[in-house]
Amino acid sequence: MYYSDDVVEEVRSRNDIVDVISGYVKLQRKGSSYFGLCPFHNEKSPSFSVSPSKQMYYCFGCGAGGNVFTFLMEYENYTFPEALKTLADRAGVALPETDDSAEARRQRDRKSEVLKVNKLAARFYYYQLRAPQGAKAMEYLKGRQLSDETMQKFGLGYASQYSDVLYKYLKQQKVSEELMRESGLFNYSERQGMYDKFWNRVIFPIMDANGRVIGFGGRVMGDGKPKYLNSPETIVFDKSRNLYGLHVARSARKKYMLVCEGYMDVISMHQAGFTNAVASLGTALTSQHALLLKRYTDEVILTYDSDEAGVRAALRAIPLLREAGVATKVLHMDPYKDPDEFIKARGQEAFQERIDQAENSFLFEISILQKSYDMKDPTSKTRFHQAAAAKIAEFEQELERENYIEAVADRFQISFEGLRRMVMNQLMQGVSVPKAVTAARREQRPEKEDGLRRSERLLLTWLVEYPKLFPLVEAFLRPEDFSDEMYCQVASMLYEQLRSGELNPGKIAGAFSEQEEQRKVAQIFNTELAVTGKAEQAKAVRETIGKLVNRVMERKAKEMTAAELTTQERLAAQMEMVEAKKRLEKLKTVHISL
After folding, report:
1. Closest CA to 310 of 341, 351, 348, 288
2. Do 58 and 522 form a contact (C-beta atoms < 8 A)?
3. Burial, 524: exposed, middle or buried (Cβ in 10 Å; 0-12, 13-18, 19+)?
4. Domain count within the chain
5. Which CATH number belongs to the domain containing residue 67 in this structure?
6. Domain final position from 210, 237, 264
7. Looking at the structure, do residues 230 and 263 belong to the same domain, yes or no?
8. Does 545 reside within a domain?
9. Of 117, 271, 357, 560, which is least packed with CB atoms within 10 Å of its CB?
10. Closest by alpha carbon to 121, among 68, 176, 73, 180?
């Protein structure tokens, strides 16, 4: 669907970027901008800036940036029309009706079509569970002590024992086979052709944070294998970026989230009143999951199974959550295996007590580490102390190290001073950063660009921050003098805005359709130079203009040498060069006011 530039600009102008992003990221004002922890990469120090004057955001760590539309598209994985509609609804802007022409239908986003197929399938499975053919599945779920209300809340369903029921239903609904294949709901073989992926299973619709059905999980009701079967990755389903139950948990208004292993654990916990429970989707917790959790909470309590596999899962999850800046605790369920079993045996109040008693994740790691050593053997015991000291030394802040030295010494009966000296020895030797972390940090840094482009970005940033510089800059540089086609386009739009007195950097970012282009625009308008004082800044402006003009003259000299010019054309070009040099000399004496 197409909306005019005027409509898009009205929606953008009615949604202040600081207000919108504050709903997702905790921001603090610093000078003229707001800063917070970037929601698009792991970081401990805020490098994510939001500028109310520019109506843009930019991360100095990973380079993510753009306007208010870009943010929703990146954060919520929206298409542009989805972001536009969300912001229009938020601001109370009525979007005009658009012609749904044949061309518009052909261009309609494929993602939207797959979501529609998923919605149809979810309704079909829901009906099947409550129909006579779903009696066995309903008996199974009732046996798991799930109420009708809970089953309805999570949209639970049933896939028939026959492997062509959904296929036939979607055919009746005029869904194409191509779209069926894209949905991930079907398998294909030469002998059978296309057939249902899920059959004779209880169905768990998987929803994204906004409640849209993006995939499905299916559980056998007996001893069949695999026990759980999940949708494959599709255009709408990425299991490493979604969490089961998040569409409900995000609005639970609890200061922490409970992270468990499976669908039934989440459902059982929600039924017991713990509506802040989520689970990963048939995979171990990933760094993307950790970042997703960080958007909604500052604290996670891991409620994994109490068996060896659950302990391993917790040990894998803890560093990922720590790296994302999420405080983590571990809930102990022994003698029960999982939350579902615990709640059925002991009830809601006892489970809440276990939540209140959840163990600090670092102390949990140390207690698991201790099990690898023979504490009755002096040599083995010393090695445990050294290993604990090495882990404490990984904390960057001195105060945090001191707190954990005290806690570990008290908990494991180690001399405080002895452990402290061990930690200091580790720090003196230098604790190496894991290669994976180093690589991730390298990936997060924006690509280095040459000095010329940086100078051009600096100048364009200054024009936004100090519009009074425009007459001076315009006298020396035209938009076409910039070295990159995109920079030329940005300069041209910025010059036009400055001439009309309507400075609007966010609108410039919106003029580019690709998110990567919008990120580059944000980078252009958020380039910094470490100078202090107005005199130094003025000097930097003068030197930057001079540098760029010199490069323009060098480029023109080369072009003039290579080109076949008439005598008159060559003379005119030479005169232009002489005039440029004269202006450069005058630049040395021009007063620059910031």
Report:
1. 341
2. yes
3. buried
4. 5
5. 3.90.580.10
6. 237
7. no
8. yes
9. 357
10. 180
Rounded-to-integer distance, Cα 379 and Cα 504, Å: 68
Domain identity same for 555 and 578: yes
Q: What residues in the chain have per-residue pLDDT under 50?
A: 103-104, 106-107, 431-449
Q: Which domain holds residue 407?
A: 372-442
Looking at the structure, tell me whether residues 264 and 229 fall in a common domain.
Answer: no
pLDDT by residue (tens digit) across 577-594? 777 677 677 666 666 766
Range 50-62 burial, b when 16+ CB lie within 10 A, else e: bbeebbbbbbbbb
Q: pLDDT value at position 586?
A: 67
Q: Give φ, ψ of 524 to 5 degrees.
A: -55, -40
Instruction: Give how far Cα 513 sits from Cα of 3, 44, 131, 316, 525, Å.
Output: 13, 32, 47, 39, 18
Q: Which long-range contacts (CB under 8 A, 24 or more apart) does 560-564 make?
A: none
- Read off the pLDDT of residues 120-156 as tens digits, 9 standing for 90 and up: 999 999 999 999 999 999 999 999 999 999 999 999 9
Last residue of a domain, one of 308, 340, 364: 364
Nearest to 37, CA basis, from 325, 374, 256: 325
Closest CA to 40 of 585, 412, 444: 444
Same domain as 522, residue 506: yes
Give the full edge-to-edge strand order of the sheet including 257-260.
Answer: 277-279, 257-260, 299-302, 327-330, 359-360
Say which amino acid occupies 555.
Answer: R
Q: What amino acid occupies position 437?
A: V
- Has residue 98 been placed in a domain? no
Is 313 strand, coil or helix?
A: helix
